[in-house]
């Protein structure tokens, strides 16, 4: 199942610094929303607020219709993939992926089946008995995605997941992520500073600047009808 996400006047201060400036945002179930904007504009902070890794200064967040303002990350129906994918170096790939599951109530054979299913989907089923040190960067990123996928959450949050990969792999993984979204139909919020990634992946793009969303629209609208000069300049279309 996919879940919608609703942000209501979401505000975040770090000390006296207002990093997120009362943002309203409504994401439909199954959407692929890409957050773009220059470095330091608040993309990661906004994602971390949705994940529950940062606390709100004010405002409200709803996931799947439930208010989650005080819900700890593990009880929000989400999984997050970061740029730096911390895998356990001494554990096998299978172990690393299994770790993503809340295994307490899941019988062992079902755990194994889930790992096998997603390993096949991510084309790492031949690598399950290896250790992370025996994998390429792209393969490691697939393992990190596998670990997020096996939780079968309603929402996926990605923070620049491809920025450590070389150009060729980045394009390959971009295509994979798009296919996965089409196949699984989960809600995705995806942070990047790469305009091409945004244009190819998003159902809607939120262009951020200095803690605010300047425009939230589908890629064609952003490109053809930028709301202001900032959006036009950032997304590389003529003003
Ligand atoms: P982005 O992901 O768009 O590059 P961030 O959300 O990481 O931006 O950062 C937004 C602003 O908040 C920056 O000015 C950054 O320095 C500041 N910031 C981020 N995290 C913290 C923190 N834990 N403490 C203080 N300031 C922070
Ligand atoms: Mg960031």
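^ Assign residues to that structure.
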């Amino acid at each position: 199942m996919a879940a919608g996400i609703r942000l209501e006047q979401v505000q975040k201060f770090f000390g006296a610094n207002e990093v997120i400036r009362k943002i309203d945002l409504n994401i439909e179930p199954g959407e692929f929303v890409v957050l773009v904007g220059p470095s330091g504009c608040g993309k990661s902070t906004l994602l971390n607020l949705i994940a529950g890794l940062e606390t709100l200064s004010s405002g409200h967040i709803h996931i799947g219709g439930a208010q989650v303002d005080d819900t700890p990350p593990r009880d929000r129906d989400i999984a997050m993939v970061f740029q730096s994918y911390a895998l356990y170096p001494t554990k096998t790939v299978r172990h690393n992926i299994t770790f993503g599951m809340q295994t307490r109530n899941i019988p062992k054979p079902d755990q194994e089946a889930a790992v096998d299913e997603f390993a096949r989907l991510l084309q790492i089923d031949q690598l399950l008995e290896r250790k992370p040190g025996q994998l390429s960067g792209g393969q490691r990123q697939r393992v990190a995605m596998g670990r997020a996928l096996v939780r079968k959450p309603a929402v996926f949050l990605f923070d620049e997941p491809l920025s450590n990969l070389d150009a060729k792999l980045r394009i390959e993984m971009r295509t994979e992520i798009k296919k996965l979204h089409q196949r699984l139909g989960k809600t995705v919020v995806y942070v990047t500073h790469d305009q091409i990634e945004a244009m190819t992946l998003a159902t809607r793009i939120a262009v951020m600047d200095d803690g605010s969303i300047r425009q939230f629209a589908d890629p064609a609208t952003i490109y053809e009808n930028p709301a202001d000069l900032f959006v036009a300049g950032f997304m590389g279309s003529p003003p």
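The beta strands are 5-14, 17-27, 32-36, 58-63, 66-67, 78-81, 155-159, 187-191, 204-209, 212-217.
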